[in-house]
Amino acid sequence: MTSKISYPKFIIENLKHRAWLVALSLIAQFIILPVYTLMYIDNKKLSLIDPSSLKELKEWASYNFTGLLNGQGNFFVVILFFGMGLLCAVTGFSYLHSKVKQDFYHSMSLTRTQWFLISYISGLLIFLVPFILFSLCTIFIGQLNGLMTASLLLYCLKAILYGIMVFFLSYHTCIFAMMLTGQIITGVLAYAVLLVYGSAILGLLDAFCSVFLHTWVSNLSPFNSVFSCSSPVALAANFIGANVSDSGMTLGFSHIGNNNVKIWSISVLVLIVFFVASLLLYKKYPAEAAENALSFPKTGGVIKCLIAIPCALGIGLFSNAFFGYSQQNHWLFILSILFVILVCFLVEFIYHHDLKMIGCGKLSTGISLAGVLMILCTFQFDLFGYDSYIPEEDSLSSMSVYCYDNNNYYDYQLYKHDTNRILEKTATTDFHPLYELVKRHKSADDTAHLSNIIVRFERKKGRPIYREYGVDYQDLSHAFESKYQDLNYRKQENPIFNIQKEDVDYFQLEDIYNTPLSLDHLTKEQKSNLLEAYKNDFLNADFNTLTNEYPIAKLYMGYTLNRTSKDQSANSSNMILYLHKDFSNTLSLLKEYGYIIREKIDQNDILRMMYTPTGSADSNETDEDLTPREIVDPKKIQDILDHLTLIDNQRLLKNNIYTKYTATVSITLNTGDELQFPLLDDK
Fold first, then answer.
1. N or C: which end of the chain has fewer CB within 10 A?
2. CA-CA distance, 46 to 44, in Å (whole number)?
3. What is the pLDDT of residues 10-53, one digit of tens each?
């Protein structure tokens, strides 16, 4: 009677039928976990400065040992998770794909639910028992090497749990794929598609937006917030990429930060959905589905469209880019239409295994073709008006503009070069000049003569809107000049105002001689005064000085934030501060501290000067005209020296200023140092 069924007996019998997989799991996990760990630790000891230093080895283990269990530090573990998930599911439910075996199993006095649970639990045991056993052996190896601490043991147990979650995601996905198909080969193909389908769709959408929408900002795409939860493999990447250590769990591949609750909730929900869906499909699995491509033939047309449309668009986009990108995108239309037909034929061949049947499913083929054309036309003609849309000014609460041309003038390392963080820090409520600038925009890729900017519209209601525009430099300059009259906006724009005097560690000075000079002897008070002097000079500087006058020197400032942190080095960095000749407070302090900035190179310091003209595509220079030559005439040398500026001569709103220069000047000093200057066309 089914009510008196002995599950352990049937599970043991199931394991006997899959004895080869049990043996494979034991051997593979023994080699990949404890054996690999022994070899890894042994090699790590050899690479240490002092191989006998247990302290150095324990420091390495505190951050890296857990990666040997969840896959971050051992790629073979990742292969193990997905490979065993596939094998356990395929071997456990492959009997459904054989009419003879299916009749045999289902003729016994067991319900389908019971058969499902027997195969499901057997697969779990095949992986989980060896994994837990050999993971504990791995931890024991760490203990024998003196690496294990109470906190590291806890993190290792967490890493084991993360690894189990990756296996579950693979296992449940493959079981669901087996329920949808009637052949092992199509089941494996369905498993591969289900693993990545959501992430592939989001990636394809982002690619199409980048190609067709001129104002699209890919790194601030709304898809980024859901990408890490968009497919089983994306969810698994969060657990594989998790670095579990004293610094906490960081999700290395996640776009949503350390929101562990969200990751866990969605992962568990996906597992439940796949499990319940698989069980329901199993209970309704038709006997005639065995040895057919699909277990439910009526779903063939839908599945065909879901596969053919994104595949055709993706292959078309890749081919168009690979063989030569076309601004008009007409080849993308042609290639996508061609590939959607070919993919439809291929899917029909997989369904029927007969070349004569590739023309079947005309309705689904037509829908796929229409879907491809509709998507292409929507993007090509921007039917939703994405590029032309600008929010109404009175609907905005704030606005911010990130200018690419400020990348090298403002050191954004403090913000981790995160564009969104920069935009948040520089948001202003008095945004009328910026709004007027945007209204005069052109698309960011219209011409190379425009300055590219990223704009963040913060609406009073709804999510922020991001756009990338190309704007005329004069318009950009006028907008910023208007905003720079507001000292608070200047403070928001320059990251230096986020550094407090107690954060400063050191200063280094570098002038036109390009030799960093350490200001080690400065007291803490002098360093603080120097920082405050620079801030005041920047706030009081004329806008024309910042945009049009070349800096005469630069200060490297080292700083440390959040000094109470355990890992102080992680918060230490440096920033470049450009000094203009009008920065009187800073220059006076440096002079008081004994440092005189050299604005020009003294001719008496020069041993040799070489002058190399730069050719241009539209000029008629001969090879002789472009030949490097030594300058020996003192008057000519002095004339060239008067035109040289600091090598790293960045200015506000101006980037890549080395793109136009007439010559390269190489100078050998009496000290043996060599300097090389681009002779800029405006000098």
1. N
2. 5
3. 899 999 999 999 999 999 999 999 999 999 998 888 877 666 66
The answer to whether 85 and 171 have CB atoms below 8 angstroms apart is: yes
Q: Does the pLDDT value for residue 657 go beyond 50?
A: no
Average pLDDT for 546-555: 92
In whole angstroms, give the CA distance from residue 135 to residue 141. 10
- The answer to whether 575 and 615 have CB atoms below 8 angstroms apart is no
Q: Tell how far CA 109 is from the center of its chain.
A: 54
Strand partners, 664: 612, 678
Q: What is the pLDDT confidence band of residue 293, given thresholds at 50, 70 and 90?
A: confident
Nearest CA among 223, 225, 142, 232 for reference residue 196: 232
Distance of CA 217 to the CA centre of its chain: 14
What pLDDT score does 62 carry? 83
| Tokens (6 digits) for 525 | 């008070």
Contact by Cβ (8 Å): 579, 538: no
In angstroms, the CA 187 to CA 174 distance is 8
List beta partners, residue 651. 654
Structure tokens at 88: 């356990």
The backbone torsions φ and ψ at residue 13, rounded to the nearest 5 degrees and listed phi first, read -65, -40
Which residues share a beta bridge with 510?
Answer: 554
Strands (E), 337-392: none
pLDDT-derived band at 248, boundaries 50, 70, 90: very low
Which residues, listed in sequence order, are joined to residue 243 by a DSSP beta bridge? 250
Q: Model confidence over 50-102: pLDDT tens digits?
A: 666 677 788 888 888 999 999 888 899 999 999 999 999 999 999 998 888 88
Helix, strand, or coil here: 416? coil
Q: Which distant-in-sequence residues (6+ apart) come within 8 Å of 43 by Cβ? A: none
pLDDT of residue 615: 61
CB atoms within 10 A of CB 682: 10
Q: Is 642 exposed, middle or buried (0-12, 13-18, 19+ CB in 10 A)?
A: exposed
Contact status, residue 263 vs residue 235, Cβ threshold 8 Å: yes
**pLDDT on residue 567:** 47
What 3-state DSSP class applies to 509?
Answer: strand
| Cα distance between residue 655 and residue 410, in whole Å | 11
* pLDDT at position 254 over 70: no
What CA dihedral angle connects 591, 597, 599 and 604, to 10 degrees?
110
At residue 261, the pLDDT reads 85
Q: What angle do CA 620, 623, 628 make, to 5 degrees?
A: 120
Could you tell me if 666 and 612 are in contact, meaning their C-beta atoms sit under 8 angstroms apart? yes
Residue among 92, 76, 97, 73 at smallest CA distance from 30: 76
Q: What angle do CA 396, 402, 403 make, to 5 degrees?
A: 135
